[in-house]
Design goal:
- The longest helix is centred in the last third of the chain and has 14 residues, at 48-61.
- This protein is globular.
- With 79 residues, the chain is mainly alpha-helical.
- It has helices spanning 3-10, 20-32, 37-43, 48-61, 68-78.
- Helix content is 67%, strand content 0%.
- Helix 1 (3-10) crosses helix 2.
Length: 79
């Protein structure tokens, strides 16, 4: 099992709080093929568009963009 799968398995499916580190782990797992986008959305009770927004924010502005307090700042800049 690689590091991404290990981290993904350590993330509880019922966790309602997603820190930037956890968001990155989920996006990395999707990108690495450890879990599919639809499976991740179902497992973490998110929409595919939320996961896509995380990926876009990460690509646009890095880890800081995934902080809840920064989301609106970066989303406005991305539009």
């Amino acid at each position: 099992m690689n590091n991404i799968e290990t981290l993904l398995n350590a993330l509880p499916a019922s966790n309602a709080r997603f820190t930037p580190k956890r968001k990155i782990a989920i996006i990395d797992a999707i990108d690495a093929g450890a879990i599919t986008l639809p499976d991740a959305a179902a497992r973490y009770a998110l929409t595919e568009s939320e996961l896509d927004a995380w990926r876009d924010s990460l690509a646009f502005a890095g880890r800081q963009a995934l902080r809840v307090t920064r989301c609106q700042t970066y989303r406005g800049a991305m539009a």
